[in-house]
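Deliverable D5.2: sample structural annotation.
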Amino acid sequence: GMQERNARKAKLLYDAIDASKVFTARALPGSRSAMNVCFYGPNDEVDARFVAEAAKRGLDGLKGHRNAGGLRASIYNAMPEAGVQALVDFIHEFEKTVG
């Protein structure tokens, strides 16, 4: 059951990123991780603002790797589907503020 649950979580998040006009997934669909979802905005300033505003809502640990930059959501087994949904909801909300 965990594999199916993790696949649903990853699909939920990648679907939101793929539909986004602000964010882009770092990996192509055939090479995507179901545990670490890496994505990025149009520039470092937007990424930093996203991380800061997400943290205010309790969505922590979204800053990407120090060498790769961008954003990274770790959605390992312990992350509930509701947590991924909260991130997806925040992505949609944040997009409305980026011009």
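Annotation notes: The first helix runs from residue 2 to 19. Strands lie at 24-25, 36-40, 71-74.
The annotation will be released with the project's public dataset once the embargo ends.
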